[in-house]
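Backbone-to-sequence.
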């Protein structure tokens, strides 16, 4: 076997090589007694540290310019106790629309009614109180011709759910914010409820998809933030953006960001394709119970309250 003559291998001066990163982008060092702003600016301008500041700036610019900020999320957001963060953003008008999965709806209703989140695949059966409320909301949606999100949100308010201060649906409904729920029919636990009206359920879900398409259409020069939905919301976003563009409307310079644990590569690909070449896709992988509070705190810090 002939060996390689290593003395013939080329070398390149460092000055002529493409740098992976610059030392100027390295982290600073947080000092005891420093402020939250000091902590933010001590983060490296690389990877998630860069994405955090880019997302913060995009959220600030969207609010100043009156552009849409759409928050999409899956049930994991509720499981990680993040609804107070969302509700503060709703109250402060830092988001302008909310779209959640059917799984997130069930967990949000459970929190509002019982102050707890339960296992969706429990062998003990589906929670009777939450399923009854959702069923009654769907029936009301059929009578009023409204969507699933608005009907469930207003139902939580009407019944004075004892823990509704922790409910995204109640907060968004009370604020009059565009609000949609997007069920995966047959895959969400409450679909097992025997008295569910499938016709009314499907009609309410279709109304919400149309409402969601309008929410997406309002996102030009704005922000779409997807938290912890790997399949439903990215695919829904793709379909909604296709519908908007097919109708002749223009979507420009949308900043989309995924906050999620690892394993969202396909979701990122779908979102990147949906926002198009003039859009901007960011990702922050890790524990959402740290990432979302950090993002929102960075925005609050920049706005001064």
């Amino acid at each position: 076997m002939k060996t390689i003559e290593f003395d013939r291998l080329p070398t390149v001066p460092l000055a002529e090589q493409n740098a992976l990163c610059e030392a100027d982008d390295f982290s600073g060092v947080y000092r005891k007694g420093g402020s939250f702003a000091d902590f933010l600016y001590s983060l490296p301008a690389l990877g998630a540290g860069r994405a955090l500041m880019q997302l913060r700036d995009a959220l600030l610019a969207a609010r100043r310019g009156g552009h849409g900020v759409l928050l999409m999320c899956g049930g994991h957001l509720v499981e990680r106790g993040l609804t107070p963060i969302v509700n503060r953003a709703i109250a402060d008008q830092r988001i302008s629309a909310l779209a959640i999965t059917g799984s997130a709806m069930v967990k949000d209703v459970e929190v509002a009614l019982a102050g707890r989140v339960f296992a969706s695949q429990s062998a003990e059966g589906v929670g009777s109180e939450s399923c009854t409320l959702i069923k009654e909301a769907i029936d009301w949606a059929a009578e009023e011709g409204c969507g699933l999100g608005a009907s469930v949100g207003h139902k939580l308010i009407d019944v004075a759910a004892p823990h509704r201060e922790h409910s995204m649906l109640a907060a968004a409904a009370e604020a009059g914010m565009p609000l949609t729920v997007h069920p995966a029919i047959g895959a969400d636990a409450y679909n097992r409820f025997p008295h569910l009206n499938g016709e009314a359920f499907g009609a309410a879900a279709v109304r919400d998809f149309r409402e969601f398409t309008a929410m997406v259409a309002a996102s030009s020069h704005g922000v779409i933030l997807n938290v912890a939905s790997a399949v439903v919301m990215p695919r829904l976003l793709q379909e909604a953006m296709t519908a908007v563009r097919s109708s002749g409307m223009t979507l420009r310079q949308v900043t989309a960001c995924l906050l999620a644990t690892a394993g969202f590569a396909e979701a990122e690909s779908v979102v990147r394709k949906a926002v198009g070449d003039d859009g901007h896709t960011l990702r922050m992988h890790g524990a959402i119970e740290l990432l979302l509070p950090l993002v929102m705190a960075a925005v609050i810090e920049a706005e001064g309250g």
